[in-house]
Amino acid sequence: MTKAKIIGLGSYFPKKVLTNKDLEKMVDTTDEWIVTRTGINERRIADENEFTSDMAYEASKNALEDAKIKAEDIDLILVATLTPDYIFPSTACLVQNKLQANNAAAIDIQAACSGYVYALSFAKSLVEQKVYKNVLIVASEKLSSITDYQDRSTCILFGDAASACVVSLNGKGLEIESVYLGADGKMSDLLILPAGGCKKPATLDTVKNKEHFLKMDGKEVYKHAVRRMGEATKKCLEMANLHESDISWLVPHQANERIIDAIAKRFTHLPKEKVYKEVVYKFGNTSASSVGIALDLLKKGNKLKKDEYILLSVFGAGFTFGGCILKNLG
Ligand code: UT7
């Protein structure tokens, strides 16, 4: 069977840079602590009037241009985000309108930081079963809108950005070899936006108690992230009938350099520069957008050689996790 491919990639970063030095003036932290514990140097913050759908639109335009197809050729838009413009309508519908992708169905996927890989799984199946021809995946996050800039344990981590790709049967690009998805709902309390849903609609109390900001038990999340991303890499290697030593590039979710290093331990043959970390250094944790940005920068940096395998591995709130193996067709 012909396999689905990523035929175009794009990303978008807001202009405003928030450095560790800036954060030193906002909370009780230091550049040294942030760099040592996370690897993050700076992150981007969207403008007051710039929203998830706007960043998604910009990243989508870049991906469509890269794929050399028009918006009207897209027949499905999947938007992965945990910071939608609204609870409803979906951000995917807003993006469909901005792009004038009038032939496309549109739906949001909520799998937190794993959203891009979840979307790749759905796009692969739908394209290979010939239900849709060209699927646009967009991951976009305005995490600054749910971050408490008085909470030093979270505000140093997150940034705003978007990434996008076009998945199709035709054309060249990155062939999708295997995708593994997993979830563990027992752990949903460890990383959560407590209020704003139907269980706790906005009230004066929820605002006073800062329940519209994300809450995370960092230490616990860290342990599960390492374990689950490790499992996911193993599962998608098995699904593709490949071995660790076949992988040329490891692209884990860009949340924390130490988590990336822990995942990389299994890949003893890989030199340091083939374990991708540029995104966590420069943009912090951009949730669903993270691996898509890494893939875009990696491809556009002309570092990928023909027939190389790239392994993506992700983890996020829910918990959700997953892995994906891509082959560069050149
Ligand atoms: O994308 C979804 C998945 N999310 C993640 O993967 C995030 C997973 N978690 C992490 O990356 C790490 O747990 C953090 C970076 C959030 C925290 O690193 P840690 O090494 O687990 O630190 P910790 O929470 O154990 O805190 C160590 C100390 C504490 O002080 P005491 O109790 O030892 O006195 C914290 O209060 O560091 C303190 N601390 C800080 N100090 C300076 C916490 N945040 C900061 C800070 N600056 N920003």
Task: Describe the protein's architecture and organization.
- By secondary structure, the protein is an alpha+beta fold.
- It folds into two domains: 167 residues, Peroxisomal Thiolase, Chain A, domain 1; 152 residues, Peroxisomal Thiolase, Chain A, domain 1.
- Helix content is 33%, strand content 24%.
- The strands form three sheets. A nine-stranded mixed beta sheet has the order 5-4-6-7-1-8-13-12-11, sandwiched between helices.
- A hairpin with a 3-residue loop joins strand 12 and strand 13.
- Helix 3 packs across helix 4 and helix 8 packs parallel to helix 9.
- The site of oxa(dethia)-CoA has 19 residues, from helix 2, helix 6, helix 8 and strand 12.
Q: CATH superfamily name of the largest domain?
A: Thiolase/Chalcone synthase
> How many beta-strand elements?
13
**What is the H-and-E element order?**
EEHHEHEHEHEHEEEHEHEHHHEE
Number of helices: 11
Query: What portion of residues is helical?
Result: 25-40%
| Structure classification | alpha+beta
Q: Tell me, what is the CATH class of the largest domain?
A: Alpha Beta
- Rg result: 19 Å
Summed over residues and divided by their number, the pLDDT gives a mean of: 97
Which cofactors or ions or other ligands sit in this model?
A: oxa(dethia)-CoA
Low-confidence stretches: none
| Total of domains | 2
From the 3D structure, determine the CATH topology of the largest domain.
Peroxisomal Thiolase, Chain A, domain 1
Spatial shape:
globular
